[in-house]
Amino acid sequence: MIRLTKVELRRLTARRLTAIGIVGLFLITGLLLVATWVDARPLSAEAQREAQRQYELAHRDWKTNAAENLRLCEADWQRQPDPKPKLEEMCTYPEPKLEDFGKPQTVFSEITPELLQGTSYFLAFAAFLIGASFLGAEFSSGAIGNWLTFEPRRLRVYGSKLLAAATGLVPIAAVVLAIVLFGTFLIVDRLGDTANATTKVWADLAAIGGRAVVTTALAAVLGCVIGLLFRHTAAAIGVVMAYVVLAEGVFASFLEKAQPWLVRLNFNAFVRHDTKYYLNDCKTGSDGSYSCDYVEKTLSFEHGAWYLAILTVAAVLIGGWVFHRRDIN
Question: What is the C-alpha to C-alpha distance for residues 232 and 134, in angstroms, rounded to an integer?
Answer without folding.
Answer: 10
